[in-house]
Design goal:
By secondary structure, this protein is α/β, with parallel strands linked by helices. It has a single domain, classed as 3-Layer(aba) Sandwich (Alkaline Phosphatase, subunit A), CATH 3.40.720. The chain is 35% helix and 13% strand. It has 14 helices and eleven strands. An eight-stranded mixed sheet has the order 7-6-8-1-9-10-5-11, with helices on both faces. Helix 7 packs antiparallel against helix 14 and helix 8 packs antiparallel against helix 9.
């Protein structure tokens, strides 16, 4: 059986998580899915979505702007995407993408670890054992094994009272079918273990990674993980929420070359996620964010340092619903300006909205959460921004 190896790990002591994940044999439903993609390392939003109308961009970042200016992908309102984000540009044109500029969590220091905990817990101060996606699953009535992390362990965003599952490809040699049949016989007297092993075998046989090299299995890229995530969401009728992440965004030096590669990989990963989702793309909401932004000014090594506000992306086929009132195809958020007097602490892009407010709006669109439910997911967060999205059909 030359198929993808299945490994499910979690913070819960449930033995079932060590043996299996969600079965993929069930027919997919039309209920909406939600995917959170975490860009670890603090992505420079000013190099992803560029405010070409702001004259201070060229003053502050002449080298950065000059490297991409001729090939920028136009959005609206004078904003443009980095040339490597071609998939995102196509989504924007079909109204399945909306960037949100000048967003940040409540965190205002510059520690990656502390900022990540605030972003994933959705609370300030952070609670590393309670994540906003886990709370959203509970608030929506989708608790009980319906959240999946494409990771080796359960991230903060999915930690909570409900069962969370993880999946990550293994580089270990695959076991033969005979071993699994013996395990099934061994677990025949335990209904729970027997069912979990069958589910794990179903996932293992349904997600084919036989073409990946050992190096790719040890360190898979976002494209392979994104496709697997999409396939699991599309084929598992009980799986409603998922999270995956991409690191490498801490660009203190050689940012132009490094972000060109990072954006290329991100774009390929998002295209693969959509391909894996298939027709389920039409009922999916995707949120993409990072822990904080970068300094506006370029440092002495051709990079940027830890900043404050960045950009987030809201995407998915569900954004196109509503015709002219579609949530996609817009650049959202209020632009604060890049003049020295407009910067946060004289160095960073100033936040004009809370990332949690936009995530609350995305959860409304995906799962129909009301305001009380959103407040339980993001306690103490401000109300969602004025560009409110339409409610789910």
């Amino acid at each position: 059986m030359q198929r993808r190896q299945f490994l499910a790990l979690g913070t819960t002591v449930s033995v079932s998580l060590l043996l299996g994940g969600h079965a993929l044999a069930q027919p997919a439903s039309t209920e909406r899915r939600f995917v959170w993609i975490n860009l670890r390392g603090a992505m420079d939003g000013l190099h992803a979505v560029l405010p070409t109308f702001d004259k201070d961009l060229g003053k502050q970042r002449a080298t950065f702007l000059g490297a991409v200016e001729a090939d920028l992908l136009p959005l609206s309102g004078g904003f443009a995407l980095h040339p490597e984000l071609k998939t995102l540009h196509a989504w924007f044109r079909e109204k399945t993408l909306s960037p949100v500029v000048a967003v940040a969590s409540p965190y205002r220091e510059r520690s990656h670890f502390a900022a990540q905990d605030v972003l994933e817990s959705g609370q300030s101060p952070a609670d590393a054992e309670s994540g906003w996606l886990a709370r959203a699953l509970v608030a929506s009535g989708r608790a009980g094994g319906t959240g999946m992390a494409i990771a080796r362990s359960v991230p903060v965003v999915l930690r909570g009272d409900q069962t969370a599952q993880t999946w990550y490809p293994s580089a270990l040699p695959p076991a033969d079918l005979d071993l699994y049949q013996r395990l099934l016989a061994l677990y025949d007297g335990d209904q729970t273990l027997h069912a979990r092993l069958q589910e794990g075998m179903s996932t293992r046989s349904s997600l084919d990674m036989s073409g990946n090299s050992p190096a790719e299995l040890r360190r898979p890229n976002l494209a392979s993980l994104g496709r697997a995530c999409g396939e699991m969401l599309a084929e598992n009728a009980t799986l409603r929420g998922a999270t995956l992440e991409m690191s490498g965004w801490d660009t203190h030096n050689q940012q132009i070359a490094r972000l060109t590669q990072q954006f290329r990989q991100l774009d390929a990963g998002l295209a693969a996620l959509r391909a894996g989702l298939g027709s389920a793309w039409d009922s999916t909401v995707i949120a993409i964010g990072t822990e904080f932004g970068r300094t506006v000014a370029v440092n002495g090594t051709g990079g940027t340092d830890h900043g404050t506000a960045s950009v987030m992306f809201l995407a998915g086929g569900a954004l196109a619903a509503g015709g002219r009132a579609a949530a996609g195809g817009k650049v959202l958020g209020d632009w604060p300006g890049l003049a020295a007097s407009d910067l946060h602490e004289g160095r960073d892009l100033r936040p004009t909205s809370d990332v949690r407010a936009w995530l609350g709006g995305a959860l409304r669109l995906a799962w129909g959460l009301d305001e009380d439910a959103v407040q339980r997911v993001f306690p103490g967060a401000s109300s969602q921004p004025s560009q409110v999205w339409p409610a789910p059909a």
